[in-house]
Amino acid sequence: MKVLGDKCHTLICSDTDLKKLLLVDKDGSVTKEICDINGVFDLWSLPDGKILYAHNSGSKTAGITILDSTGSVEMNYIANREVFSCQPLQNGNILLGLLGEPQLREIDCEGNITNQIDIPYDGISHEGMRMARKIDNAYLVVQPGLNKIRKLSLNGEIIKEFEIHPDAFGFVVLPNGNIVYTCMSGAYELDENGEEIWSLTNDDIPQINICWLLGIQLLSNGNLVFVNWMGHGHLDEGVHFFEVNRKKEIVWFLDGRKTLKMPAAFQILDEDPMAVCYT
Q1: Could you give the C-alpha distances from 188 to 1, 130, 151, 256, in angstroms and in order?
Q2: What are 28-56's pLDDT values in tens digits?
Q3: 75 pairs with which residues across the strands?
Q4: SS3 annotation, 140-180
Q5: 215 Cβ contact partners less than 8 Å away, ≥ 6 residues apart
Q6: What is the pLDDT of residues 255-272, one digit of tens each?
């Protein structure tokens, strides 16, 4: 794999074509593979060395799984509906985003439901929700079927909603409260009023060839890392992972076209895992 940058990263990622989780070193070498992992679009490397991921392939087996540090299954929760999103919570519970009739569900380590809300939606079932996060006693949810990001109360009431570009997937919340979200055409920043104040598209970084930005991570230095998904007929057409600063300069990238196929979810591992997972 080709790596470029003054500060390179180790990472864990899913690959929806290879059906694997992969640990990748700073030089681009794969140091570990976990096979037969299908349909993973959200994953977390937890501070205790465990791995949490959501898997949405097949409605009868979709849910979330936790692997211990040896790669053995510690927990497997079947939701019986597509699950694109999961999040570890500070109290030890896990947030899931379920499709079908969209729903957010919090479960404990035994799989007991501790909170559950329905998400208002009347569009195409598969597009009802992508990334969902619990932040500051509220939920933020990407709903590509509505071209909206919604902020919901813990009871499911709509607090605020923003219009967004089509085919949106992930997001991060910046320290100033602004939201940067990903979609097929790139990434966009919204202020508290929903106004678009920053964007990143192929016009800015043509050497990456954005196909569909899915996962996103905010680094401690303020830069953003993205994964460029090559699904739906775009295999090998672009660079898989890249980091940009606020000036839209590429400061690191990982081009894995000789090894990777369709990375979809990732986590940079040289950041503080407590801050990544619970901030």
Answers
A1: 28, 16, 17, 25
A2: 999 999 999 989 999 999 999 999 999 98
A3: 66
A4: EEEECCCCEEEEECCCCCEEEEEECCCCCCCEEECCCCCEE
A5: 41, 42, 169, 170, 182, 226, 227, 264, 265, 266
A6: 999 899 999 999 999 999
Residue 189 has a pLDDT of 98
DSSP symbol at 248 = -
Q: Rg of the chain's alpha carbons, rounded to an integer?
A: 17
Task: Provide the CA 174 distance to its chain's centre, in angstroms.
Answer: 15
**pLDDT confidence of residue 206:** 98
Hey, CA dihedral for 122, 124, 126, 130, is it positive or negative?
negative
Nearest Cα residue to 243 out of 212, 269, 208: 208
- The per-residue pLDDT for 59 is 59
The answer to whether the CB of 34 falls within 8 A of the CB of 67 is yes
Token pair 């460029």 is found at 228
Cβ-contact 253, 243 below 8 angstroms: yes
Contacts of 15 (CB under 8 A, 6+ apart): 21, 22, 260, 261, 262, 263, 264
Of the candidates 145, 142, 141, the residue with the CA atom closest to the CA atom of residue 121: 145
DSSP string spanning 169-230? --EEE-TTS-EEEEETTEEEEE-TTS-EEEEE-TTT-TTT--S-EEEEEE-TTS-EEEEE--
pTM value surpassing 0.85: yes
CA 86 to chain centre: 9
Number of CB atoms found within 10 A of residue 249's CB: 11
Task: Name the 3-class secondary structure at 54.
Answer: strand
Q: Cα–Cα distance between 273 and 94 in angstroms, integer?
A: 16
